[in-house]
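Notes from the 1:1 (GR / supervisor)

We went over the backlog. Supervisor wanted to see one worked example end to end before approving the batch request, so GR pasted a single chain during the call. The sequence is below; no edits were made to it. Supervisor asked that the structure be written out right there so they could see what the output format looks like.
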Amino acid sequence: MMKHIFAMVIVLCMLPDISCRKSPVAPQPTTNCDFPPGNRNFSWRTDTVAWWPSEVGGVWAFSDTDVYVMGDMHGPAMDGANTTYLSLHWDGKEWGVPGTYNDIQHLSKDVTGDGHFMVSVGYWSVGDDKAGLAEFDNNLKKWTGYEFQMPGDLYSVWTDSKGFFIAVGDNGMIYTKDGYNSQWVYSKAPTSFTLTRIRGVSKTEMYISALLYNAADQEYNQYWKYDGTNWYKLFDNQDTTGNVIALPADYSKMTDVAPYRCPATDSLKLYLAGWNSFLLQSKGQAQNYSVQNLSPALPLHNMGNTAVIVDLFTPNDIWMLSPEYNFYQWNGADFEQVYIPGLPGPETYTGIVRNMTKTQSGKIFFPAEVSPQVYVVAQGTP
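Structure output shown during the call:
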């Protein structure tokens, strides 16, 4: 009997859409979704990975010693400043140029992945700029590039870590891939806003932030819920008719969204970040949210700064990142500002910061701009 079970496991691992490799995982909660406090104590190092004329799009870590940073890469690890590379690879000791990309002309804006598969989204740089992305299968060490027909950029990508990927971008553009070997399928959100960020609980429960600048340079925001078929507009400060979320009148510049649903209680925590930072809570799928302003505890608004990223690893391990290098971590009890050696001090410089990725050991990687078009990857070892 045991031989038959062992053989079945081997067969499942060989199927193309099933991975038996472990993904980077968060600490496991109790049955009531109580997580241990998130760590905020790290030893940090920063490595320069690119300089002018470069842009870094994101980073994904398969393990502590198998990490890819994506972008339009030039600089210190290259064989010439005029050569463009899709990515650099961290092997635990140094950043180097990995293998061939099969002439992929993709420039990255965001990256995500699971235990063996990574997707980087942005645009295709050859000809008229159109949406494009690059995939990497770490089992096969194989890159694949896609140039789509829709004009514009893809800005954000999310996965359920089971083979489902969804990317969003300009003018309500959506591209979805359901299965590692499946094709990307285009669809359109019911908005002309740019979809700037997508995060999900599952492939039937996703949350999207959207942004629009009009001709007078006024900024408007929307928040949407998407169940894979139907769209539900939660908030719109251009057309407030039917708003589900009641945010304060001084609300502005909300740039990121991060959800967590507790299976045991079927309760949702939805974090919004920007000029202010809010925690929304609800039960089940009801569109009835309580709203808590986190800004008094997390003084982004008082300091005149705007968070641009919420990285939620667990509800007790949340990072909020600002381009003015005000970094805060929530450990379940309080917020604390984190200072990272090798990066500009808070409010001394404004630059690009990208999403964090965390490995099974709890190590953190994220890219940041430390001076005009000089990029590093910060590594935090617990």
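Supervisor's comment: The first helix runs from residue 2 to 14.
Batch request approved.
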